[in-house]
Amino acid sequence: MSGENLDLSSGSSDPPRENRGVAGRPYLGIHFACCDVYARVYINRDQTGYEGCCPKCLRKVRFRIGPHGTDSRIFTAY
Question: Using one digit for the tens of pLDDT, what is the confidence trace for 18-77?
Fold first, then answer.
């Protein structure tokens, strides 16, 4: 509507350290090179790693969570 504004700023210029899905579960963005598709891989219940599979060929991937971690949130699985 005319005269109304929507402010989408968060007040901080720092990017979020952790992606969270609709249900609040952290996830990683994965480009599956095998089928050239992108998918989210969610954290497992034990919170020891991220587990998922390619949505086309069902190739499984697992990313363990290390003691120092990484700031990267997008990866490529070959």
Answer: 667 666 889 999 999 999 999 999 999 999 999 999 999 999 999 999 998 888 999 999
State how far the Cα of 43 lies from the Cα of 58, in Å rounded to an integer.
17
Q: Exposed, middle or buried: residue 50 (CB in 10 Å: 0-12, 13-18, 19+)?
A: buried
Q: CB–CB of 42/65 below 8 Å?
A: no
Burial of 9 (0-12, 13-18, 19+ CB in 10 A): exposed
CA distance 2 to 72: 40
pLDDT at residue number 20: 72
Beta-bridge mates of residue 75: 30
Q: For the chain, what are the domain ranges?
A: 27-77
